[in-house]
């Protein structure tokens, strides 16, 4: 394990990224444990910080940690890998605190324990998934295409690299608009998923379905019916499983 960590993380210069990832995961678990204790009314838990009756959301502290970690990280000499890792960890703590209240920031309402508040958990899971892939050395195919074009040089290589990157990004946008967020995100690392996600039917409540499947005509009616059938047969069981996992980690909504 030690050899793997040294060769995969330290020797490749990904130690700051690993520290960011670890700090973000641990901080998210810690803050969710704290909020669940507060919600349960546990007497011995410190509880909300309310100076003068003003409730301070932990996203405020998260912004402070992100500023501190970001400024210090940019100011440090690149050779100070250890201190850069510390700065990355501080930034990870701040990112977790902010993302944990992503739904509140998005809606400008306190929806933390509502169904809409699950958007915060999804945001944290997505950030952890993408960062985890980067930590183990899996890079987005779009970035790889551009790096490859830069290595080979020449106008042809750049045109091909930019065109392929633009194609993959376009497919990712279409996939997300079809209601397949995870396929779109992970597909940036494994492009075959983007081709599958962009070709297949949209989920019935996705923007793509609202724009196209509700048009008059038998063709669009059949597509909408197929999308609803697939949603009920395949997506809903997976969504219920995801809700159970989210509820176990982050607490069930009201």
TrEMBL record:
Record keywords: Membrane, Transmembrane, Transmembrane helix
Listed transmembrane segments: 15-35, 56-76, 82-108, 120-138, 158-177, 184-202
Domain of life: Bacteria
Name of protein: Integral membrane protein
Source organism (scientific name): Phytohabitans flavus
């Amino acid at each position: 394990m030690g050899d793997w960590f040294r060769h995969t993380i330290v020797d490749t210069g990904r130690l700051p990224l690993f520290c960011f990832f670890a700090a973000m995961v641990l901080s998210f678990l810690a803050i969710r444990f704290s909020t669940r204790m507060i919600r349960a009314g546990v007497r011995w838990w410190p509880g909300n910080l309310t100076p003068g009756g003003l409730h301070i959301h932990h996203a405020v502290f998260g912004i402070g940690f992100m500023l501190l970690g970001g400024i210090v990280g940019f100011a440090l000499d690149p050779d100070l890998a250890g201190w850069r890792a510390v700065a990355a960890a501080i930034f990870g703590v701040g990112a977790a605190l902010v993302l944990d209240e992503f739904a509140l920031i998005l809606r400008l309402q306190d929806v933390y324990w509502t169904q809409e508040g699950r958007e915060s958990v999804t945001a944290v899971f997505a950030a952890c998934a993408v960062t985890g892939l980067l930590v183990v050395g899996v890079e987005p195919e779009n970035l790889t295409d551009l790096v490859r074009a830069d290595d080979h040089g020449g106008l042809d290589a750049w045109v091909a690299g930019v065109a392929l990157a633009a194609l993959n990004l376009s497919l990712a946008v279409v996939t997300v608009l079809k209601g397949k967020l995870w396929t779109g995100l992970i597909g940036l690392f494994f492009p075959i998923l983007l081709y599958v996600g962009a070709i297949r039917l949209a989920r019935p409540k996705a923007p793509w379905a609202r724009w196209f499947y509700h048009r008059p005509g038998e063709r669009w009616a059949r597509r909408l019916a197929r999308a609803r059938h697939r949603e009920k047969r395949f997506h809903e069981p997976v969504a219920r499983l995801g809700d159970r996992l989210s509820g176990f980690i982050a607490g069930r909504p009201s």
